Amino acid sequence: MTNNMERKIVLVTGAVSGIGEACARKFAAEGYDVIINCRKPEKGEALKAELAALGADALVLPFDVRYRDQIITALGSLEGKWKNIDVLINNAGLVFGVDKEFEGNLDEWDIMIDTNIRGLLSMTRLVVPGMVERGRGHIINIGSIAGDAAYPGGSVYCATKAAVKALSDGLRIDLVDTPLRVTNIKPGLVETNFSVVRFRGDKAKADNVYKGIRPLTGADIAEVAWFAASAPEYMQIAEVLVMPTNQATGTITYKQS
Ligand code: 8X3
Hints:
Blueprint: E1 9-12, H1 18-29, E2 33-38, H2 41-53, E3 58-62, H3 68-76, E4 87-90, H4 106-134, E5 138-142, H5 155-174, E6 181-187, H6 194-198, H7 203-209, H8 218-230, E7 239-242
Parallel strand pairs: 1-2, 1-4, 2-3, 4-5, 5-6, 6-7
Helix pairs in contact: 1-2, 1-8, 3-4, 4-5
The structure holds 2-hydroxyethylsulfonic acid.
């Protein structure tokens, strides 16, 4: 843990649930102060109080990554130490449905594309220049095993996560002559609210995804993010594919009946 004099700042998008929340908690416990991005301020305030109990200072920064003007206003409001973001965790992301590419809902696809790709890219474009100026920083993108290969009913989601891989790789190339690092974490099955959203609130269907297999948790992914962030500065954890032991690919799992 770092001491109070040198506390670093992490900004986590989508910080009030799932992997994002687990990252906020983990980094707070390890001595970071946390910028909590979320859409609903009251959820952020509840997490802020919990992070305070871990000794972390936190700032709630409500905006929806889909709307660039909201991001610009929010980042522009940062004052003092909060401007000096050391780690950006581009976590906000979602999936809707398991529809075929010729049958799905175009509006839902727009939300996925706007959040998972355009939101992540806007955050990167707006936060990274300050990191380059300060000569330090780490961008951790939450990609997915879904970005490695398309799976049935996942076409658009898989495409967004393939984009996250390309954007991570491209950023790493563009920052190669700087001290900044870029990490793409590609989780497989992680039990969070993710599947509930995918099945549009149908908890039973969501639970079924994880039946017969021990899925990872948000906390497991936060450990990976922390491993990357706390690696020595000369070491760049570029990409991590992490899944349950009984998962082999996006489509091959072993489930006990
Ligand atoms: C989540 C992984 O395989 O459930 O990004 O779509 S998967």
